[in-house]
Write a structure and sequence with these properties.
The chain is an alpha/beta fold. The protein contains 13 helices and 8 strands. It starts with a strand and ends with a helix. It binds zinc ion.
Length: 288
């Protein structure tokens, strides 16, 4: 019998902190680490989620890092003059890169479906719905980099956090709940929802190399756990398998740390899965 599978992605939810703050809903029956490094080029959101939904690495699915260029040729020139690897650790190079973008009238855009070179779970499972998946169908808010606007205009981290929560997080959770509460349409064979709140807040005050506010992190993690509880309650009799996961953990000096987690209410893996292992597993569960 085929199963109905729900995946909730909590971007950046750090496995070590889940354990430290003892989150009860997030840690379902099976709880463990995701190997998000084997075959990956970068621990960045778009590349990792593209790997999750295709079961392939960047060489095959074509998505590496977080963003690509509107104009490939101009992008290549900028990459040569101000390589991302140097920009991330050198302020002067960051300014150079920004100046080049203005002069060449091009910008980085977040990856989406059009950049993918292989099929995804959403192509393979008929009754499936992707909600805001990086590297596939991200929200317009995130595509337009709206989340950084308050900071660019000089507002502080608290305003930026509130801006995100009220415009973007509420939008995603509202639509997630109306999907789960919809009694007219039967549950999907595969529903996957991406929530970005933890990662965004962590970049504001959870950066171990800059601002690290443990109290704020504890509150953020507890709120996330409450949300996970509400999701479990609403999804309970509709979905056979509920998987919670993250793509990486806290921000690090370069990108993010590797502390990704997964949990499931049913048995999934014997050993630590690679982020590319979920594709076959979900396909198998939904198509048995
Ligand atoms: Zn991420």
């Amino acid at each position: 019998m085929s199963e109905k599978v729900l995946v909730i992605a909590f971007d950046g939810l750090d496995k070590e902190l889940i354990e430290e703050f003892n989150l009860e809903n997030i840690q379902q029956k099976e709880f463990g680490t995701i190997d998000n490094q084997t075959g990956m080029k970068n621990i960045y959101t778009s590349e990792l989620f593209a790997s999750f939904i295709t079961g392939k690495n960047w060489q095959e699915h074509g998505i590496e890092h977080l963003t690509t260029w509107e104009d490939k040729n101009k992008g290549r020139l900028i990459e040569t003059l101000a390589p991302k690897s140097i920009v991330e650790s050198t302020k002067g190079f960051h300014r150079l890169r920004e100046t080049l973008k203005t002069l060449l009238k091009t910008d980085e855009v977040k990856y989406s479906q059009e950049h993918l070179e292989t099929e995804t779970l959403f192509d393979k499972i008929d009754n499936s719905r992707p909600m805001y998946i990086p590297g596939f169908n991200p929200t317009i808010f995130w595509q337009l980099k709206a989340e950084t606007l308050p900071l660019e205009y000089g507002y502080g981290a608290d305003i930026a956090a509130e801006f995100w929560d009220t415009r973007e997080h509420e939008f995603r959770t509202k639509n997630l709940f109306s999907e789960l509460e919809n009694d007219i349409v039967s549950p999907r064979d595969f529903l996957m929802v991406h929530l970005h709140r933890t990662d965004f807040h962590q970049h504001l005050y959870g950066d171990p190399t800059g601002v690290l506010d443990k109290d704020k992190l504890r509150k953020l993690y507890q709120e996330t756990d409450e949300l996970a509880g509400e999701i479990l309650e609403k999804a309970g009799d509709k979905y056979d398998t509920v998987i919670f996961m993250s793509d990486h953990g806290l921000p690090a000096k370069k990108g993010h740390n590797e502390k990704a987690f997964y949990s499931s209410n049913t048995k999934l893996f014997e050993d630590t899965p690679k982020i590319t292992d979920f594709h076959d597993k979900i396909l198998e569960m939904t198509q048995e």
